[in-house]
Write a structure and sequence with these properties.
Elements: H1 12-22, H2 29-38, E1 69-78, E2 85-93, E3 99-105, H3 110-123, E4 136-139, H4 148-156, E5 161-163, H5 173-184, H6 195-211, H7 223-227, H8 231-256
Parallel strand pairs: 1-4, 4-5
Antiparallel strand pairs: 1-2, 2-3
Helix pairs in contact: 1-2, 3-4
């Protein structure tokens, strides 16, 4: 089953769930992993073959403002039912780290991915911009990302597509970091009862992330502040306040130690020897 073209792109977890649903076999994730690893099938099994390490990194131009490059991906969300997952679709602006659009679903499909990108286009009024000012879109090489509906959407709306290399998360690090931040949040429940509970949680979380979270990757301003172009102004104001406080501290320290308050120094001379 793993070697067939139909299932060549599936991970060992999805392969186990799919096989169980189709009545082909029942096996745990760890069993499927062990079998695939023994058969050297944990690498890419599709027509492209295994990653040879010679593929080139995507060319990333320098960014100087929001909506110049978007990155997106899909992450598993655990439920209370073993083997069943929800999926978080997330679209992030790379410059500001703002979560532009997000979506919760029980499925990983190209249609859900298309809705995510279309929502971003509408939210940011991208279609009002000339094509040369529209963002490029970077993702990994999953079948949802390379599906024809996504390719057509990007072509129709002038959105250049970039793809990370297989098994190279550093090619698209910002979305990976965002997912890590999501799942390390103190309030993160770990598991969700259903999609309604997940949506309720992420409505609150995304609002906090965009509007209140001081992001270390953008000089500790919020993603919304960076997206609105306020990052440089806020950083400059903080620097000015810090400089003023430093000068004040020096002035106050000089007042404490003055000639009248300096302790008198007593010089002790050695005793003169008597002949």
């Amino acid at each position: 089953m793993a070697k067939s073209a139909e299932y060549a792109d599936l991970s060992h977890r999805i392969l186990a769930v799919t096989a169980g649903d189709k009545g082909q076999f029942q096996a745990s994730f760890s069993t499927v992993y062990r079998v695939l690893k023994a058969g050297n099938l944990m690498t890419a099994r599709g027509p492209g073959g295994a990653h040879n390490g010679n593929s080139k990194a995507p060319v990333r131009r320098e960014l100087d403002g929001p909506n110049q490059r978007w990155c997106w991906d899909i992450s598993y969300l655990m439920t209370f039912q073993k083997g069943m997952y929800l999926y978080l679709y997330l679209l992030l602006d790379e410059y500001s780290r703002k979560a532009i659009q997000w979506h919760i679903s029980w499925q990983q499909t190209a249609e859900e991915s298309r809705l995510l990108l279309e929502g971003g286009l509408i939210e940011e009024n991208i279609l009002d911009l000339p094509e040369e000012h529209r963002p490029e879109v970077i993702s990994d090489r999953g079948r949802q990302m390379k599906a024809k509906p996504i390719q057509r959407l990007c072509e129709d709306h002038g959105l250049p597509q970039l793809f990370a290399r297989p098994r190279t998360p550093n090619d698209n690090p910002f979305i990976e970091s965002a997912f890590s931040t999501v799942k390390r949040a103190p309030a993160y429940p770990g598991r969700f009862l259903d999609d309604c509970q997940a949506r309720t949680y992420f409505e609150s979380y995304i609002a906090w992330y965009n509007l209140e979270h001081y992001h270390s990757g953008i000089d500790y301003v919020t993603p919304e502040q960076a997206h609105q172009g306020l990052r440089a102004k806020i950083v400059a104001q903080r620097k000015a306040k810090k400089t003023a406080q430093r000068l004040r501290r020096r002035t106050e320290n000089k007042k404490i130690i003055t000639p009248s308050t300096k302790p008198k120094t007593t010089i002790i001379r050695p005793a003169t020897k008597v002949a």
